[in-house]
Amino acid sequence: MANLVLAVLTARRIARNAAPLACALVLGGLVVLDAAERLPPVAAATALVVLVAALVQRARRRAAAIEASALLDLEVGALLVVATFAAVLRLDGSLDGDAHAGLYVVIALVSAFARPGASLLVALTAAALELGVRSAMAARGAPIAWGAAAPHIGFMSIFSVLNATVLRAEISRVRKASNTRLQAEIDRLRDDARSYRLLSAPAQARGVAQKGDDERLARSGVEEIHQSVLFALRLLRESLDLYTAMLLWQSDAGTHLRISELASDAPNLSEGPFLSGDGVFGAALTQRAPVVIGGLKPGYKLPYYVGPSPVRAVCALPVFEHGQARGVLVVDRVEDRPFSPRELELIDEACRYAVRAIQNERVFVQLERAKVEQGKLYRAAEALGAATTEAGVIEAGVTSAREITSVDFAAVTLYDEAQKVHEIRAVSGDGGAELTGQRFRHNSGLVSMVLQNRHPLPYRGEYDDKRQVVFTRRVAPPSMPSIIVLPLCVHDRPLGTLVLGSKRRAAFNDSVRSTLEVLASHMAVSLSNARMMRRLEELATMDGLTGLLNKRAMLEVADQKITAARRFSRRLSVLVTDIDHFKKVNDTYGHDVGDVIIKGLGDVLRRAKRTTDAVARFGGEEFVVICEETDARGAMLLAERVREELGRTTFHAAGSNGPVQCQVTCSIGVATYPEAGTTWEELFKAADESLYVSKRSGRNRSTAWSPSMRSGSGHPPAAEASAPAKAGSEPPARPAKAGSEPPARPAKAASEPPAPARAAAEAGAQARAAAARAAGAAPQRRAPVGGGAPALAGPDSAPAAGRRVAASAPPKVPGAPGEAEPRSKPRRPSEADPASKPKTAA
After folding, report:
1. Dist. CA 338–CA 238, nearest whole Å
2. What is the signed CA dihedral for 257, 259, 261, 266, rounded to 10 degrees?
3. Model pTM?
4. Residue-wise pLDDT tens digits, 674-686
5. Rounded to 5 degrees, what angle do the CA atoms 651, 693, 681 make?
6. Pairwise CA distance, residues 554 & 538, whole Å
7. Exposure string (b/e) for 342-377, b if CB count within 10 Å is 16 or more?
8. Per-residue DSSP letter, 416
């Protein structure tokens, strides 16, 4: 059904996408028919309306698209060509008139804006329509100039190729020039930011995310510095009647000076850069004091003017930051008036203002960068806190590392401290399939050394695959220049490592490494919490001895599976398994051997079940299996397979008196949904009834539920079946032989046996109980009175020991009513001493 729906949706999508192009082809066919024979006015008007509507709709969509697809270009071009041919035929009546030149304009327009492939198809469509229309006109007997078709098609091709080539070449040139100017402006901005020390590292050594953040901060910082400096220079120029006021800043190498900001009306200023030792610049930087020059001649040469300088007085002051010369502030005036000490003091104050503006912006950028880093760590901590599994923690940690810096390879290893073994749990990047799941011993590689020293390695994240080993020589990550291995530790307890790699050099510098270390610590805590949560879930849902589901978890699974079976009308079977005579095993060999047997039965059930089945230890030696999509026959096959495999299994354990080997059997009850019930309570009760039928029928067997069990036929009443035999009580009647009548029930008050007979019967029961205790057996369970399946005579008859011990029949008491004659009569007690103890048969 899903495939059919998918096919229908795909067909609808294809039809919807192909409808405009199909419409253009149909309209082109109508143009050819109109050339052969004029269409009726109604048909022609209808075709015109459809053509205009389709053309307007596709043109509006093409105009709204930022980057249109080739199919959309082809649709618009084909509709334009069809419309042009229709107009030419209606205006000139043929393709040899003056209106045919409009077709070349359409071809050139489509070639200019459409993709190359779409332009070629549009030109082919125009050529096909040209030939089709001329053929149609020839069919109706009109004189056709076939010689004009070839030039027309040739001109279409020439217009298409030339327009596409020339226009696209011009567009490419303009785009390239714009990109060049933009890149130059970005480079200038970066240089200014580095000269102001707003950037601490070259941009190419930083990650993509951090590069974008740094550029944004640097751009805003440089703009703020320029605005502050420009304000100071304009204020200084207006107050001192200056011609030019200019701040020049040194490059990182200190060899050049670049114009940081200026306020001037001079048309012949040079853009620079200038050498630090040129003219007044070199004098101010060398003397580390203001340089004031007055009375300049008209032909005096200044470095920052192109040609003769128009000024007569100039002053250059070095700009200092923390005692180091960082730039030069140059002012000049056209009037031949020297600068006074008061004016020099104002110029010096402007220098200090510019330096304070740069320092303030530098601090602001650092705070913004710290804010950005804290935001990344906050998002990382939030993602790691939301992860509740090891896989979720690993995925959140790797994603957060990619946000902090440029990461091309990431791996997480987990460490087993008891076995000294590392395991690569997850890998992101090249070679992930080969590395995931690899295990290696503790060695001298970077991963092992990081866990041993609790410190990131290698130093500065510089990796050389020829001298360094990350995992092992055989198990190695892809070769890349930058790799860092971070420890994952909680309370100085190693959990594993986080391995990050980048194809960029110096990708893990000091600032990035400190942030990654904080991320690793958060990741380690989240990983420890995920393990603890997984352990808590196991303790809450798993049985501690067998590793199977416990009763609480089984009840939840049972409700889900029964709901699904009811929803989809499926069969579902429940198996209840119980170990036969398990109490005798515990009493004989000890509870430690009983635990071994319980774990063994759990292993048998785990091996026998399917992946969709659920197995749980319900309590004591009782297990429950829920099988989906299984009827009563399939459940009985599973039950018999479990029972036979358990019977063939020999359990070895260390008993109190040495090694113990024992075999046990089990009884199984089966109930199937919906015959046995529609709720879990009904199904479990039916399976439990089937289990007790297996117990009463001799144990070591499987029984499927049937409606007769619910009505009470076919098995003894529950009250009588579960009543244990007590010492000193009335001895039970022997089971009747095949085909014989059951023994009569003892008479009530009116037919009470005499006192000597009752005393003899009680004495016989006491002797039988003493013999059973001497043999190490539990008291004998009474056989059901009135027929039915007899109960087992006692623990001595359990098949766990591989043999059955028959209990002796009670001695016949003279005069006891309802007593059947035994096959071999035991020796009667003396008539004179009726209270003497009878002997029992072994």
Report:
1. 17
2. 130
3. 0.53
4. 999 999 999 999 9
5. 95
6. 13
7. ebeebbeebbebbbebbeebbeebeebbeebbeebb
8. E
